[in-house]
Amino acid sequence: MISTQDSLSRPTNNDLATPILTAYAISHLRKMPLVPASSDRQWMTAMYQRFAHRCLPLLIANQSGWFLLNTHKIRVTWTGWDDINGLQVEMLSGEPPCPATSHFGYGILTWTVPYLFRTSPGYNLLVRGPANWPKDGIAPLEGVVETDWSEAPFTMNWKMTRPVHRVIFEEGEPIALLVPQRRGELEKFQPELRAIEDVPELHQGYQQWLQSRKSFIAGLCRPGSEEVKQGWQKHYFQGVHLNRTAAPKHQTKLKLKDFVDRRSETDSPDGPYLKRRFLSPAECTTVVEVIRRYARGEPGLKAAVHNHFRIEIPARYVYAQGLKEAALLLSQIRDRCHREIMAAFSLQDLVYPAYMMLKSNYPGDAHVRHADSKRYDPSALAWVANHTPYCVISACMYLNSCGHDFTGGELVFPKHGLTIPPEPGLLVAFPSDEHFEHEVWPIASGQRYSILLWFTHDPALAEPELVPAEVSA
Question: Topology of domain 14-188, per CATH?
Answer without folding.
Answer: Deoxyuridine 5'-Triphosphate Nucleotidohydrolase; Chain A (2.70.40)
